[in-house]
Design goal:
By secondary structure, this protein is of the alpha/beta class. It has ten helices and seven strands.
Length: 257
């Protein structure tokens, strides 16, 4: 059996449950992703950085729906903490087959007015955190695995006040697309999902109903995305149907130009 045949055999080993690590899995989109991957039969590790209570609630919800899940903590920007998380996953479950990095923060202000502390905070989570997680995923994912990072449709929309945030996500896209080429021969796909406006508590908070309606009408489908919409895109890239999609940014935004 040559290396290509071995990797296919490993990927198709039905006796071994696939394992997904969802970074930021206690959030709105992260939680939907955890549910969706668990519904596909994957063992899901729900990572959290802040609230253990929210993470455990997400685990309880996944288990109640018939899935398998555990919660593990870690600061995405700290290599030692994330290495410990991956070590724990491998010790408990034997390996990692999918890494989905939904963790990120968004602070908005016109570029001329944004303070450097806010930009540095976003850079630490969105850029450094993506680098740390992607590096570990590149080293730990099994053949047939998938890394899915998160960008944003704002990188194409050029909306005022989003410059600092979009800049960090532009870096995420660059790292993602290059890493896909660097993993040649490993049978690992590397892609990014770029959501548009999505109806999460974080998105809705502080916005008037009129503003939300205006944003929703921008898409040809005339609605906001849902966390479940984004989770479907992730499940496609993490599953067998997405094996020929590699080194791409998938815009999940209802057609917003």
């Amino acid at each position: 059996m040559n290396s290509a045949e071995a990797s296919v055999a490993t990927r198709n080993d039905a006796s071994r449950p696939r394992v997904a690590v969802v970074i930021g899995g206690s959030g709105g989109i992260g939680g939907a992703v955890a549910h969706r991957l668990a519904a596909d039969g994957m063992t899901v590790v729900i990572h959290y950085a802040g609230s253990a209570t929210k993470a455990e609630a997400a685990v309880t919800s996944v288990v109640a729906a018939g899935g398998t899940a555990v919660a593990l903590p870690g600061d995405v920007a700290e290599p030692a903490e994330m290495t410990r998380l991956f070590d724990t996953v491998e010790s408990r479950f034997g390996g990692v087959d999918a890494v989905v990095n939904t963790a990120g923060i968004m602070l908005l202000a016109p570029l001329a007015e944004m303070d450097l502390e806010s930009f540095d905070r976003m850079h630490r989570v969105n850029v450094r955190g993506t680098f740390v997680v992607s590096q570990l995923a590149a080293r730990r994912l099994r053949p047939g695995g998938a890394l899915i990072n998160f960008s944003t449709s704002v990188t194409r929309l050029q909306q005022p006040s989003y410059g600092g945030y979009a800049g960090t996500k532009g870096a995420v896209e660059a790292m993602t697309l290059i890493l896909a080429r660097e993993l040649r021969g490993r049978d690992i796909t590397v892609n990014a999902v770029a959501p548009g406006p999505t109806a999460t508590p974080l998105f809705v908070e502080g916005k008037s109903e009129e503003l939300i309606a205006k944003i929703a009408s921008a898409a040809p489908l005339e609605r906001l995305g849902t966390p479940e919409d984004i989770a479907e895109a992730v499940a496609f890239l993490a599953g067998p149907g997405g094996r020929w999609i590699n080194g791409q940014v998938l815009f999940s935004n209802g057609g917003i130009a």
